[in-house]
Structures are given as structure tokens and as C-alpha cells.
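re: ur question from yesterday

yeah so i grabbed the chain u mentioned. its 138 aa long if i counted rite. heres the sequnce exactly as i have it in my notes:
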Amino acid sequence: MTTAKDIMHPGAHWIPATETLQHAAQRMRDLSVGALPVSDEDERLCGIITDRDIVINCVAEGHDPSTCTAADLAQGTPRWIDANADVQEVVREMGSHHIRRLPVIENKKLVGMISEADVARNLPQDQVAAFAARVYSD
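ran it thru and got these C-alpha cells back, copy pasting raw so excuse formatting
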């Protein structure tokens, strides 16, 4: 059985909810990633922010990324997957919630991230097409 841990990018990094969006953007640049999980004061997942979130919901709205925080954008119920979950469970979670990146948690700690590219590399072609249709549907 292929698990979430088998296909994830290991070593994902949190950003505290209190951190500015400017710092979040700098971290994304330095790590060459497009998303960061957001943690609360207890280092528990409380959201995820993307580079697009920063541009659309902060900069384009005329807000200052040096004063807005990750908590300002980390809204809704954060989705995640257990490291031992089967890859088909990963596909269901990402597809049913139309998400492109999924934090992987093991023993209540962030251990990695799964992107749609990770899923595509690890599924047969016909399943990749079905997965993409679910993630990108309205």
C-alpha cells in the first residue's frame, strides 16, 4: 500500500499565525514553495496560506503585507492527512475539497506536504485525469 508519507515532500515548514504576510512571502521564496501551513500558539494546524492568497486577498485589496498576519488569511477548516493514509484517501480528500496542497501529519506534527504533482507522479494516468477533474471542477 502506498501511503501519504511515501508520496509527500518531507520537511515542510510551519509559519506561526502571528507572522506577517511579508515574512510568509519571503519564506515561500526562500523555500521555493507556493504554500505554507499556518500554526497556532500550540503548533497545531490552523490553516494554510498560498502565494496567491497573499496577492489576491492582501496586496490587491490594498492591505499592507508587512502588517497583515497569516491569521488574517488562514480561514476555514484546515484539511490535512495522516502520514499512514492510503494514497487513495489522499486523492479523495484533495478531490472532494478541491485542494491542491495537503499537509501531512504524523503524531500531531507536520512531516510533509503533498501537492497535486506528487499525486500525479504516483497514480496511473487514468486516475490522474479523474483526480484533476475533481480538483479543478467548479
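noticed a couple things. The chain is about 40% helix and 20% strand. also The beta strands are 9-10, 15-16, 35-39, 45-50, 81-82, 101-106, 109-115.
anyway ttyl
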